[in-house]
Structure formats: C-alpha cells, structure tokens
C-alpha cells in the first residue's frame, strides 16, 4: 500500500510538471521565450495543431489569437470552414510573421512536413501581398478603409522585411530553406521594401526626418488611420525602421543619408523634461497616466508629432488634436501608448554604425558632437564597440549630461585614456570580478627617462566628473618596478566597487586642487602603491600589501587642508609581508590619516617613515583615530605623528573633505 502511495504521488508530480511546463500567457512569449528543445514536446505539437487550423489556405493568419488555448470540437469545426476563406488575414500586431517563426522552430525539432508547408505558404502570402511600390498593406487581400495604406504601424512592415532579409540572405535563422526561386523573390521583395522606405521618409522644409505610421499606397504621403491616428511623424515606428536600415551590410549612400537624417531628427525631438507616472488599481491595471515634469529624465519621444513643427499632439476618438495628454479622455489616455523610448536603441548604436560606414559622428548645427548617453562595449560583438577606448573616442566632448559606457564581462587588454574633454563620463562594468581592464607597461618598458612612471598607467583619467564602478583595473607587468594601474588627475572623480591591482605605484592620484573618492574598493600593491598629491577619501576599502614596504606616499601641496584620508578601511597583507609602513612623505607636506580602520599585524609599530627627509617630520601630517587590530600600536608610533581627538576627527567628514564637489555628486 505504501509503495502504491509513492507511485501515485510520483505520477501527480509528473502530471503537475507537464501542465506547469509552459507558464507564458501570451502567444508571442511562447514563441520567443521557450528553449529550442521545448518545440519538440507534446505540448508544443498540440499547439502546432491549433496554429495549422488557424492558418487560412491563402497562407496568412488572423491577429490577436492566443494559439495555445485549447479548442473545443465545435471551434475546430468552425476553423476548418474559415480556413477556405481569407477572413482577417493580416500582418498587424505580429500576425503571420510570428506564426511562421513558430513553424520554423517546430520543424527544427520535429520534421513534420506540414510545418514546412505551413511556413512556405506564409512566405508566399507575404510575397503576394506586397505592392508594386514595395510597401505592404495591413490586411491582404485588401480590406476597405485605412487598411490599404502602407503600414509601418506596430512595426508590421519591418517584421515582414526582416523575414525577407533572412530568407533572401539564406541565413540559418529559419530552419526551413525555400527553393532558390523563392529565395530570389524574397531578396527582390526586400530591396523593393527598402526602396519604399527611402521614398516615404518625410521631408520637412526640404530636410529628411522620419516616417508616419501609415503612408498612402499611391502618393506615399503620411496618411490617417483610426480617428486618433492622424497624419504625423512617429517617434515609435520610425525607430524600428532605422534599426532595419542600420542592419544592412554595405548600405547605399541613400540608406546612409536616411539613417543620418532620422538619427538627427531623434536627437532633435527627444524629451528629457517629462516622465510618465502610471496609477494602477489592485489588479495591476493602469487606471490613469500622467506626465510629470522632471529634470534630466531618460529621453522619451511622442508617438505623434506635427509634420511641419515636430510638436507632440494627442487625439481622442473625436480626432481633435490636443497639446497635452491630460486633455483627452481616460479611455484613450490610458489605453494607448502615447510615448516611447524605442529611439534610444538607435542613438545607442549610431556612432558605431557611423564609424563602420565611413560617415562622421553625428554633429549639431553648432558643429559640436551630439550627446550619446549610453554605449556598450562587448568583446563578442553584441555591443556598440569591442574596445573600451573606441567607446571613449565615440563619446561626446564636454557633454551636458552623464555619458555611460557599459562594459560587459571580459578581459580587455587595453591602455585607456579618458581625456579632459570627455568629462561627465561613467565606466560601468558588468561585474567587478569579470570585467577586467589590463595592460603591462612599466618604467623600464616605457624607457622615457626619469618620468617614465607617469606613462605606465593602464587607465588614465584626466577628465573631471568621472566615475567608475564594477571593474578590475590592473597593471599586469608584475614586480618590475614602477607600474601604475590607475592614474587620476581629474577633479570630482568617484571610484566604487572596483579592484585596483598592481605592484609598485599601483594608484596615482594627482591634479591641481583635485578631489577624488574611493568607496568599497580593493587596492593592492607593494611600494608606495597609493601615491600623489590629490585630496582623496577612501571609505570601506581593503588595502592589501603584497610585500613589506610602504602603503602610501603622499605629495600633498603646502596649505592643503587634507591629503589621503582612509575611513573604515581594512589593511591586510600577504603572509610574507610582515613589515609594512602606513606611509612615507614623497613631498615634505604630505598628509595621510587613518580613521576607524582595522590594521593587520603587518603594520610596523612605528607606523610612519620620513624617507630620509628631516623637514618632513616638521611639515607633514600623519595621524590616526580609533583604529583597531594588531597593527594599531599608538604608543609606539613615531613621535612626529598624531593621534586625533574626537573634536579634531569631526572635521574629517565627507562634506569637509570633498566640499568643493558638485552637490549630491558623492551620495
């Protein structure tokens, strides 16, 4: 009996697992998100039967059908009757193109010839539906009304052209390979479609801009669809059109001009002073949308803009234009997407595309480079660049807003410079451990004389208002003398959650009146591995000595209120490093203070060394407060060092140390 009970439980678990295998509610999600192997399951085969039933004999499918829903016998009977008609066959809302993709994924796993035939019928339907001018209507066979317009709406034509592109180029995207004759037709259809796109790009006072969601199939001019979808320039649909044009290898001069012009229009029409606020009910449904003023908001674009002025407008079902979203009724206000951020993808990819295709980086009318606010670096080619320095080169000079270079995991063997004109720049790694910037210059390798040290850095930051996080910055030359990993001469520089690795002279901090901030970092080295004249605050950092030597070598200028300040840091060392000094004065006015730090046993009792500079004992300022650990031996410290009082330590607040920085920059 007990054995049968276990068997029953096991069967119930298997049954539950089978039912829970697919949790996607939307048909499009089932196609896009399931693993390839899922398309060989019984569940997928069952859904495929529905998809085959919904396909009309002409080859197309209706839209907005949840194909995964189980059909009753009566529904199946009705669909068999409708199959012979052309009722509601369309490419709107992803219809037909997404079902073709489903059949391709099915055929890759199950060689059922019906799947192949279904895909090819769908492809033939798309080829038949194309106008002679290269465009596609929303419904085919043609349906009276605005449905006959060339339809970019909801990316319908772009989806079709992507199908033609994959088929025409004979890629492996689809598992089903059409005949050479059909492949040639797909290539011709794609070329005609691109020609249509170029001809429908709207000229505003003689300047190319973007596209409307619909264009008249005869005149090619912007056209009206539903009452609230008036002729306009579209911030949404135009984005996918440009991305399609940018995907074309060896683009023609006309395509290059189209992309440049549309990108300039996106830059011109972006909105950065508004944010959308959504009000939800208990069920999570949007019951109200409001646009609220904001400073430096993420850019968005209006769905509809005036053809001649680019001014956003909004319409209710009465078709009357309004200037703000709150002027239309709640039904249309909350039930339609009036703003979009899709053009951000175009702006993100544009510089890389422009360089690749031999055209200049986008410029303003005042000849200053346009802002490119987010660039991605990835060694596998999935980003905008494969090298960090190339992304820096593509970043705008003296931008008004922060520019982020996101660096995906990988080891980047580069020597990088952030020049002073690339201020407001952020280097953001995917992860501290796996996003590694490394190079192996050292004093002897550089061999430029006595100042060779300053040319050895892996990463040189000359720009103000720079920040880096989630990175490893490494000088990989080993124990071969002076070799800088990170050199910072900029002001208001913030480094968080980074590994800074080297040997002698790992971290150089300088710059006239410069102030720099390090938080949650791991810094390791040997001799003087944190050195320079800047004011620098280190919070919650691990400072690791590889050898018995000196942690700091400050060269604080005379009169500076602060030099190097370490708060809540932990000083560790390799087992062989048993005689480490907290610091020595590179210049006689050196200032270095350790507050609330844990000092390992490697720290020498005397703490500090004068570097054979008696004057440093009179002019430098070396101090501690409330440190702990075996290395904290205040009574054995050199006589010219200091133990701060509570009153004195109160002056070492982040506000005082970094008081000249931009408000809230270091929060």
Automatic annotation (TrEMBL):
Pfam families: Pec_lyase, Pectinesterase. InterPro entries: Pectate_lyase, Pectin_lyas_fold, Pectin_lyase_fold/virulence, Pectinesterase_Asp_AS, Pectinesterase_cat, Pectinesterase_Tyr_AS. Pathway: Glycan metabolism; pectin degradation; 2-dehydro-3-deoxy-D-gluconate from pectin: step 1/5. Residues 376-659 form the Pectinesterase catalytic domain. Its EC number is 3.1.1.11. The active site is at 528. It comes from the Bacteria. The keyword Transmembrane helix does not apply. Gene3D superfamilies: 1.50.10.20, Single-stranded right-handed beta-helix, Pectin lyase-like (2.160.20.10). The keyword Hydrolase applies. It catalyses: [(1->4)-alpha-D-galacturonosyl methyl ester](n) + n H2O = [(1->4)-alpha-D-galacturonosyl](n) + n methanol + n H(+). Keywords: Aspartyl esterase, Hydrolase. Belongs to the pectinesterase family. PANTHER family: ACYL-COA THIOESTER HYDROLASE YBHC-RELATED, PECTINESTERASE 53-RELATED. NCBIfam families: pec_lyase. This is Pectinesterase. It comes from Flavobacterium ginsengiterrae. The lineage of its organism: Bacteria, Pseudomonadati, Bacteroidota, Flavobacteriia, Flavobacteriales.
């Amino acid at each position: 009996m007990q054995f049968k009970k276990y068997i029953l439980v096991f069967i119930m678990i298997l049954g539950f697992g089978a039912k829970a295998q697919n949790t996607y509610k939307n048909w499009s999600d089932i196609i896009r998100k399931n693993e390839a192997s899922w398309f060989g399951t019984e569940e997928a085969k069952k859904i495929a039967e529905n998809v085959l039933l919904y396909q009309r004999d002409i080859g197309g499918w209706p839209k907005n059908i949840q194909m995964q829903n189980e059909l009753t016998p009566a529904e199946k009977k009705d669909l068999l009757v409708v199959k012979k008609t052309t009722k509601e066959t369309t490419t709107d809302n992803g219809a037909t193109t997404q079902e073709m993709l489903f059949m391709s994924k099915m055929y890759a796993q199950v060689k059922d010839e019906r799947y192949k035939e279904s895909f090819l019928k769908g492809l033939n339907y798309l080829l038949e539906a194309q106008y002679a001018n290269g465009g596609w209507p929303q419904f085919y066979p043609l349906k009276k009304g605005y449905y006959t317009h060339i339809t970019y709406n909801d990316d319908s034509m772009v989806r079709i052209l992507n199908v033609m592109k994959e088929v025409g180029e004979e890629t492996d995207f689809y598992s089903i390979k059409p005949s050479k004759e059909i492949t040639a037709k797909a290539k011709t259809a794609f070329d005609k479609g691109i020609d249509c796109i170029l001809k429908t790009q709207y000229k505003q006072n003689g300047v190319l801009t973007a596209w409307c969601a619909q264009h008249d199939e005869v005149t090619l001019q912007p056209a009206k669809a539903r009452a609230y979808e008036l002729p306009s320039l579209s911030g949404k649909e135009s984005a996918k059109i440009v991305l399609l044009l940018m995907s074309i290898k060896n683009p023609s001069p006309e395509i290059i001009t189209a992309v440049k012009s549309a990108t300039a229009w996106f830059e011109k029409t972006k909105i950065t002073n508004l944010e959308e606020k959504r009000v939800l009910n208990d069920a999570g449904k949007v019951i109200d949308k409001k646009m609220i003023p904001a400073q430096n908001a993420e850019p968005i674009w209006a769905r509809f803009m005036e053809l001649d002025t680019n001014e956003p407008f909004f319409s209710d079902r009465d078709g009357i234009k309004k200037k703000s979203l709150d002027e239309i009724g709640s039904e249309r206000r909350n039930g339609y997407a009036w703003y979009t951020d899709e053009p951000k993808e175009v702006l993100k990819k544009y510089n890389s595309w422009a360089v690749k295709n031999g055209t200049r980086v986008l410029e303003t009318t005042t000849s200053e480079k346009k802002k490119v606010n987010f660039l991605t670096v990835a060694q596998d080619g999935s980003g905008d660049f494969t090298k960090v320095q190339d992304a820096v080169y593509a970043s705008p000079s003296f931008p008004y807003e922060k520019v982020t270079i996101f660096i995906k995991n990988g080891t980047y063997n580069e020597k990088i410079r952030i020049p002073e004109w690339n201020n407001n720049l952020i280097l953001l790694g995917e992860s501290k451990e796996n996003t590694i910037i490394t190079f192996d210059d050292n004093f002897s390798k550089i061999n430029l004389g006595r100042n060779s040290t300053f040319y050895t850095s892996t990463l040189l930051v000359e720009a103000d208002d720079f920040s880096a996080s989630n990175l490893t910055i490494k000088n990989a030359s080993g124990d071969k003398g002076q070799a800088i990993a990170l050199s910072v001469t900029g002001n208001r520089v913030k480094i968080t959650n980074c590994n800074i690795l080297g040997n002698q002279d790992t971290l150089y901090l300088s710059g006239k009146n410069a102030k720099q901030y390090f938080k949650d970092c791991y810094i390791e080295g040997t001799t003087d591995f944190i050195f320079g004249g800047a004011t620098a605050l280190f919070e919650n950092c691990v400072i690791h000595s590889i050898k018995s030597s000196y942690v700091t070598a400050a060269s604080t200028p005379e009169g500076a209120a602060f030099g190097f300040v370490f708060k809540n840091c932990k000083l560790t060392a390799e087992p062989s490093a048993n005689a480490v000094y907290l610091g020595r004065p590179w210049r006689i006015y050196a200032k270095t203070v350790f507050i609330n730090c844990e000092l390992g046993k490697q720290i020498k009792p005397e703490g500090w060394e004068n570097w054979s500079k008696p004057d440093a004992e009179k002019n430098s300022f070396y101090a501690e407060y409330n440190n702990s650990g075996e290395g904290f031996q205040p009574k054995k410290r050199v006589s010219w060092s200091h133990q701060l009082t509570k009153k004195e330590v109160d002056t070492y607040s982040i506000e005082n140390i970094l008081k000249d920085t931009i408000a809230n920059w270091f929060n």
